[in-house]
Amino acid sequence: MAAERGIPDEFLDGFAGIVAEASATGRRLTRAELDSRRALGERAAEAGHGLRELVGVHLAQARAHPYGAATTLDAVLAAVAQGVDAFAEGYERAQRVAVRREEAARREFIDDLLHGRSDLGRIAERAERFGLRLSYAHAVAVAQGGHAYDEGDRAPRDVERALSARFGDRNVLLTTKDGRLVCIAPGDQDEVLVHFAKQAHAATDGGRVAIGRPQSGPGGVVQSYEEALNALDLADRLELEDPVLRAADLLVYPVLTRDRQAMADLVQNALGPLQQARGGAQPLIDTLATYFDTGCVAAEAARRLSLSVRAFTYRLARIHQLTGADPADPVHRYTLQTAVIGARLLDWPARQF
């Protein structure tokens, strides 16, 4: 009967006899009997059989077995319930072990993929198991919220449901790394990353998302991931307000800091004299940054800094006096703006050179 349902008889070994013997006297199943059922449940799970079908064949065998006239229905049902419950317990235990093993393998793969710590050819082979075909270009988006997230948290689950509902199976891998949400998608499916950014921004209560450029091969995933992380770091240091950043739009900043010593010299020469001001250089640097961020509109910059236009204009004049560079002069403006960007990137004047 079990074979008719595709279940080998070995997974019911002795079940009907145990039920008949226990129900004849009304006793409970012994520890050895329960342990044997649990062991069979584990083996059935490892063999890939469904629990619903397994329970069905157990019930069918118990129903077909001939019982003595003195055996009551209640006693049979009690014995069947104990046996099936022990079998299901073993089955579920094996499934939990398998899930933990799969989770560990997935986490190891993600760590290797995002840090490039393993052989790239081996990573590409393992990637197909998790829905990625690394022979094509991929791009990585990273979302950072107010606190760290794990894969079991609500935010990544909500984002994953939203992506699945919108796009189905598109060879997309959603995970977490170092407390951030990470989405790896084919490089020609930018709409997936855009939707991820929208959903992640909402799920993390206004968190920021950075999208790396599409890159080819297993090493390309690492490069795109690092670009996204660098974009998040730049956004923090430059106090950028955009909720979604693209690494392609920020390429000028790594160029500016490629020669760190040259940038430090520029900052020191252009802005160093501001340290002579009362209150130090930082308030005047903030004044310049806001002025440039507003397109050099003094009235708007004053409003953002909660200053009167007169007070703001005085600050610009003080900067001109100390540095010899006029923020309103296009030639001087470029030098000052580049120096302000460098000061933010190098955390100056908080960190002196």
TrEMBL record:
<dbReference type="InterPro" id="IPR041522">
    <property type="entry name" value="CdaR_GGDEF"/>
</dbReference>
<dbReference type="Pfam" id="PF13556">
    <property type="entry name" value="HTH_30"/>
</dbReference>
<feature type="domain" description="PucR C-terminal helix-turn-helix">
    <location>
        <begin position="284"/>
        <end position="340"/>
    </location>
</feature>
<comment type="similarity">
    <text>Belongs to the CdaR family.</text>
</comment>
<feature type="domain" description="CdaR GGDEF-like">
    <location>
        <begin position="116"/>
        <end position="234"/>
    </location>
</feature>
<dbReference type="InterPro" id="IPR051448">
    <property type="entry name" value="CdaR-like_regulators"/>
</dbReference>
<protein>
    <submittedName>
        <fullName>Helix-turn-helix domain-containing protein</fullName>
    </submittedName>
</protein>
<dbReference type="InterPro" id="IPR042070">
    <property type="entry name" value="PucR_C-HTH_sf"/>
</dbReference>
<dbReference type="InterPro" id="IPR025736">
    <property type="entry name" value="PucR_C-HTH_dom"/>
</dbReference>
<dbReference type="Pfam" id="PF17853">
    <property type="entry name" value="GGDEF_2"/>
</dbReference>
